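Q: How would the structure tokens look for this protein?
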Amino acid sequence: MKRRIGKLIIFLFVFFLVEIALYNNVFAGEILSKFIFDWDSIFFVKPKLESITMYNNQFMLQWEQIDNVDGYIVYRKTKNEWEEIEVIKGSSNNWYFDKDIDAGKNYTYTVSAYKKVKQSELQEINKYKKYKKEDKKDKKKKDKDDKKEKDRSETYKFGKKDKKIKLVSRKDKIGLSYIIGPVITKLESYSIKWQQCKGVDGYEVSYRDHVDAGWQKICNVDKDQNVYHIGGMYKKERYYRVRAYYETEDKKVYSIGDSHISLKDKNYEECSILFEGDDYIKGTKENKSKFDYTKRIKELTDAKVTVHGKEDRKLKDLVKKVEKDKDYFKGYNIICIALGGNDYLDNVKIGNVTDTNKKTFYGQLNYILKKIEKQNKEAKVVFVTPFYRNKYKKKENVNCYTLENDEDYDLNDYAEAMRVLGKYKGVHVYDSEKEGVINVDNVQFMTKDLIHPTDFAHGKIGCSFTSFLVECELLNNDI
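A: Here is the predicted structure in token form.
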């Protein structure tokens, strides 16, 4: 009787362990192998991808470590199918840097673990597959699976050499994507509104009372909402931030926050700002901007902002406009010349700082300054140097600040011309390289196509430009 009870207890114990193994998505023999066989654990769960972060123009992936495996397989999806991109050896190497990425694309990742086992051990594994949970509705499917398992086990015949077979765990079919931060599109004394992000679980709204203070959380907002009513949390000098997050099993992973947003400079409703730009602001037909940095400037200052800009626009196109319109620059407090990128692509000769030849870059800038002086003497002028880019015509992943065009000028030569003339003529210069919103380390993530900024980058530029206008005391309500 005691022997029967003992056998029953052992049977129930083994059955219980098998049920746990099945419930936790492991191979059927996992716990049995630990108690019945003297093997290392060759059965494993699928690894959980915990975070994707941006680091020096690369995606850094990290996942939970699985003990007693030989390594991991990293998969990436850009459209609808998973593609194996890397096999990583070692159970402790639970991270990977993906350098092979293109600007503006959305990448999704997932990971599986693998272990190499002997054919003899594999047959033992197959033997324990019979402990799989059986459902009457799935009986037909189970019969097919059993036949497959039988065929598979019969395939691995081993003789003198007991060869090893690679077993691969399941992978998370949904995967994880890098979270692009939400863009704040509207800030008022009673509410803050932002663009919604895909694939997130919610948003965190926080504040700080000065730029050097730590962020204080106000609340979390549901993923389906994109507005928060500030109410009693409002202070004119206060800065606000919104960042997206997704939840893993044990923590929250946050996006970069859209921050430095405040109402403290929203006092210039009578100030009129003109931007003479190109497709960098408005975007191209393929990459049209829904949000650009001039909209952020308007939101932060309440100024009247006018933008003239179209695809492939160059400084000579502005010269032609000004030649035809004697009142072109009238009525503006601030006039911003944000051109030069397409002049670089068009191989425009730079000339010298005193040049009056309207075929050179210096000559065109001097002509425009002369017309502004004549048409609107009180206006304050700002040169905006060309922003960093990693694309020259059809060449991608090239540093245009050092890559020379057909006239032996690089993009920085045109930026330097604006700096030199600005100093010579007493014109304010917003130096995009010095401000560093878009640079060699983040151009893949902050642009859609290695040239044109993402909405998030436009927001950052707008904050930076607003601070520049305030620090240089350019904003005013005098017409």
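The domain at 179-258 is CATH 2.60.40.10 (Immunoglobulin-like).

Residues 20-42, 127-137, 149-160 have pLDDT under 50 and may be disordered.

Upvote if useful.
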